[in-house]
């Protein structure tokens, strides 16, 4: 009976030592993972702080203000182009456009407008300006032709 106890006791001590070693190794792994997690969390906090600082930067606010002004100028220019086109076509210009009054909310109110929408608007205005430039040039050439005496 004492031989059996000794045999089982040695086996239990060996298993306990092995389990203690395994637990110690696991504790070290857990400590390493915790350290890595802390590092990741610190990096995340630093990144969030940088993002918040960038969003609140004066440059970003200046860009927003400048974009709003460009959008308003684009809308005003579109109105002027429309008035000139009406005049060129012999129509009575829309007085609200002529005075720069908006009967509909300006496009700048659509804050969600995409870059592509604004780019399309600007390109359309540029095309209209080119058309007007051609029309005015033709009118000027015709006027010069009428003033010049023919031989």
Describe this structure in words.
α2 runs parallel beside α4. This protein has helices spanning 2-55, 58-88, 95-98, 115-147. 1% of the residues are buried. It is rod-shaped. The chain starts with a helix and ends with a helix. By secondary structure, the protein is mostly helical.
Write the layout of secondary structure elements.
Elements: H1 2-55, H2 58-88, H3 95-98, H4 115-147
Helix pairs in contact: 2-4
How would you summarize this macromolecular structure in one to three sentences?
By secondary structure, this protein is mainly alpha-helical.
List keywords for this structure.
151 residues; mainly alpha; 81% helix; 0% strand; rod-shaped
**Class by alpha and beta content:** mainly alpha
Using only C-alpha atoms, the radius of gyration works out to: 39 Å
Output mean pLDDT: 81
Order of helices and strands: HHHH
Beta-strand percentage range: under 5%
What percent of the residues sit in helical stretches (DSSP H or I)? Answer: over 70%
What's the N-to-C terminus distance?
A: 143 Å
Largest sheet: none
Assembly annotation: single chain
Number of beta strands: 0
Number of discrete helical segments: 4
User: What overall geometry do the principal axes of the alpha carbons give?
Assistant: rod-shaped
